[in-house]
Amino acid sequence: MSLVALILGAGANVGKGVAQQLKANGYTVVVGSRSTTKVDGASHAVKLDVTLPETIKTAFAETEKIAGPPNVVVFNPSGFSPPPGDAVSVPLEGFTRDVAFGTTGLYAAVQEAVAAFRKAPKQAPKAFIYTGNILPFVPATLPVFLSGGVSKVAAAYQIQLFSNSFKEENFRFYFASQISRTGGPVTMKQLSGHAHGVAYWNLVQRKDQGDWDLRFYEDGSEGPHEPVHLVFQP
């Protein structure tokens, strides 16, 4: 049985950690990014820009041609444009680009993923994992997170809906967020590629959907769904 994973947005931290974990468990890993850089753990690289949906369709087609239809898809890209002044000072161009990651970009990727899942080996697990954060689950109080927060909220809504829409086919969808030991957010420095790899592999191995909202610690173990506040821990 051919097991294929496509990682959209494969950087040197999260993308690399997930690619290494999947490769170690028998997957052929294809990574997609603007630069077509092949991170450690990946067998192939394809070019895409998630803000341009047509490139997502091409990336899936190239992946199928190279390795077969992916039965695991990981969506990593996101945008962040902090406002230089008040909450409405983010340039419209930057806001539109950032929001596209969690709206049209994600939707286009899920369209292609569902089509690929239907062509993948029947006995292979089918999982779509979106790399999120806890912005959809906290009060909107900090303008610095405006564009990124809107994108993540839209993504969380889509993932929840899709997780309820394809249960009969056992196509599983997850919004996965690394959290601190207090349940809050983590800094970029604390973000662990290894933890993402462990947590995502655990998701792939699930037999049933379970909760669409996964929160996990720095070792990849699952954390609780408690009310959180946007306070970063050192």
From TrEMBL:
CDD domains to which the protein is assigned, alphabetical: SDR_c
Molecular function in Gene Ontology: oxidoreductase activity
Region forming the signal peptide: 1-19
Pfam families named among the record's database cross-references: adh_short_C2
Keyword terms: Oxidoreductase, Signal
InterPro entries the UniProt entry points to: NAD(P)-bd_dom_sf (IPR036291), SDR_fam (IPR002347)
Family: Belongs to the short-chain dehydrogenases/reductases (SDR) family.
Protein name, entry field: NAD(P)-binding protein
